[in-house]
Fold this sequence. Notes:
By secondary structure, the protein is an alpha/beta fold. The protein has one domain (2-122): Rossmann fold, CATH 3.40.50.720. The chain is 30% helix and 17% strand. The protein has helices at 31-46, 77-90, 108-114; strands spanning 2-6, 52-56, 58-60, 74-76, 94-98. Strands 1-2-5 form a three-stranded parallel beta sheet, with helices on both faces. The chain is globular, with a radius of gyration of 14 Å.
Amino acid sequence: MVAQSLAFVYAPGPLPHREDAPLNLDDPSFTDTVRAVASLEQQVLAAPFTGIVLRYGKFYGPGTGFDLPPTGTPLHVDDAADAARHALTRGQAGVYNIAEDDGTVSIQKASDELGWVPGFRLSE
């Protein structure tokens, strides 16, 4: 199972955030969202099947309402779709950051284990 999650819910700390960095459960204005994300991820990873969590950055591109990359964890929708394809065909259980490499989150694990790198729409 591939679950879509968020790459912009990490607690403040050194950048880039890796998948094992803590989530921001202490920010009262964001707590409900982060708890929902944590619950989703825990349920997927604990289920009796191969659970893959893709922590997506902030979408931009066709159909998103945003033509330009946002600040902090941008992700073009074509790259998001490509990451899901890679997860389905190559993924092992676990959490993967999926975003453009802007220094906010580390995408090294997705690159190493899924063979995913941003720029799918640019390679055609």
